[in-house]
Amino acid sequence: MGKRITVPFGSQHVALPEPIKFVFQTENEKITSVEVDVGYVHRGIEKACQTKFKYTQVGYVVARVCGLCSISHTLGYVTAVERLMGVEVPKRALYLRLIVSELDRVHSHLLAMGHTAEVAGYENLFMQTFRYRETAMELLELLTGNRVQYDYATIGGVNRDLTPDVAKTLKERLKELKERCLWIKDVFENDFTLKLRWKGVGVVTKEMAKRFNVVGPPARAAGLETDCRAEFNYLPFKELGFKLVVRNGGDIYDRNLVRAYEVINSIEMVENALEGLPEGDVKVAVKGLPDGESFVRVEAPRGELFYYVKGSKKMVLDRVRIRVPTFANIPVMKELFVGMDYADVPATVISFDPCLSCTAR
Amino acid sequence: MDFKKFRKKSPWLLHYNTGSCNGCDIEILACLAPKYDLERFGILNRGNPKQSDVLIVTGPVTKRARERLIRLYFEMPEPKVVVAVGACACTGGVFRHMYNVLNGVDKVIPVDVYVPGCAARPEAIIDGVAKALEILEKKKKDFVPPKVCKNVEVKEPINRKFLLEKCLGVKNEG
């Protein structure tokens, strides 16, 4: 029987860019119980969407739920409203949305991978990943005009067209980005020390993933074939060469590998989209007011993002409900920690890529 | 700019997120990464308030984050500077007048430099931090060690919130 020690982790911690609080009860380095507190950044966005903002403005407000997957939130909301109002979005706009959403996935995944490397003590790899991530950020800036909050998708299309110059630069720089991402994938797959550190740590089995309803890269690393890009038709993924990445390990190593393969696949999809970009308008005028209810599932970088929208012929919506991927992943994290060494905790937390500003809103 | 002045000392950062959307936070991370590289000014990000000189705050300050922010601020040694990064840290931004939000960092602690933008660009953040370092240098010159605080009488058990409010009250009286 060892000595019981309580270890608080958060709410302010170097490894965490955002406030989350874990309280671990440990016994000889082994964790016996965990408490999680995620509510530090609750701002009340859902309430404000139903009272303060018009339905045309809400798309820009929900983008501020999370800076890393801002385009996913906008896409979810915009698609839901378009389905309510029966808007036919031009094909070119759909392709442009896909390009931005996939480039966003590239930079978000690279950030998550770099962070895991840093927490494992591999600072050099962290810096390299961040250097390569900057390429994706520059491409996004070129395309949308901003580095983080794109405000690109709007009801009925997109806000900004792609000029031929930009398309040419994008194509050239994507080749460069792909080479670098292949190098990163190689390091994450074959590096000896990283394997020693990550293999067999924080294993989520397929049964566990099913029981706790895990979403996103952690679920795909555990062998569950779940991806909203394949299951829900909101952007033309299938015709642009979408491949489902599934692995069977379920540990930190496999989670990062799923991300690495998805990055490559995303870059390929963007290349295909640029190759076969249809001509035409990027935006159609929208008339009328939303009436009725609809829901949409979108694959954000962290997993399935769910939007429910209800309107009754008013400028302000009756209800906007957001269910975010991190919320679905927290129960399995809690289960995972019991019986784990305390030293493995930061790497495991970061490998799930938690996004607290999404969770608390 | 006179970079020699900054090289005299290596200022350390403390970063706290009080409810922002992560956009500014990843831009701060990008500042520390190779492309923008704040480290060339000797700046390091260390999560320890007792060793930091510059407090970078992002987010509009939610009601729960308020207490933590005040505590972090008082745990930092004098002289110190505060940089508010992002539109929502300056004024509340898009979250202004939402029910759980206090509309900006300067409602809670004194702010020296405001960096606008949603999300603030890395160049702007670096500029803001460089300005903050100038202010820090000035503050160092004018710095007078404070009088010893008078003892605050507390009944058992010690209530941290009560202590904090007492301490704040003493500070406001001068």
* Rounded average pLDDT of chain B: 78
- The helix-and-strand class of chain B reads alpha/beta
* Domain count of chain A: 1
N- to C-terminal separation of chain A?
A: 42 Å
Radius of gyration of chain B: 17 Å
Average pLDDT confidence of chain A is 83
Which descriptor suits the 3D outline of chain B?
A: globular
| N-to-C SSE string of chain B, H for helix and E for strand | HEHEEHEHEHH
Q: State the CATH superfamily name of chain A.
A: Cytochrome-c3 Hydrogenase, chain B
Q: Which chain pair shows the most residues in contact?
A: A-B, 38 and 41 residues
3D structure, described in words:
The complex is a heterodimer of chains A (361) and B (174). Chain A is α+β, with helices and mostly antiparallel strands and 361 residues long. Chain A contains 14 helices and eight strands. In chain A, the strands form three sheets. Chain A has a three-stranded antiparallel sheet, with no helix packed on it. In chain A, strands 6-7-8 form a three-stranded antiparallel sheet. In chain A, helix 4 packs antiparallel against helix 5, helix 5 runs antiparallel to helix 6 and helix 6 runs antiparallel to helix 11 (252-275). The radius of gyration of chain A is 21 Å and the shape is globular. Chain A starts with a strand and ends with a helix. Chain B has 174 residues and is α/β, with parallel strands linked by helices. Chain B has one domain (3-145): 3-Layer(aba) Sandwich (Rossmann fold), CATH 3.40.50.12280. Chain B is 39% helix and 12% strand. Chain B is built from six helices and five strands. A five-stranded parallel sheet of chain B has the order 2-1-3-4-5, sandwiched between helices. In chain B, strand 3, helix 3 and strand 4 (81-85) form a beta-alpha-beta unit. Chain B starts with a helix and ends with a helix. Chains A and B meet through helix 1 and helix 5 of A and strand 1, helix 2 and helix 3 of B.
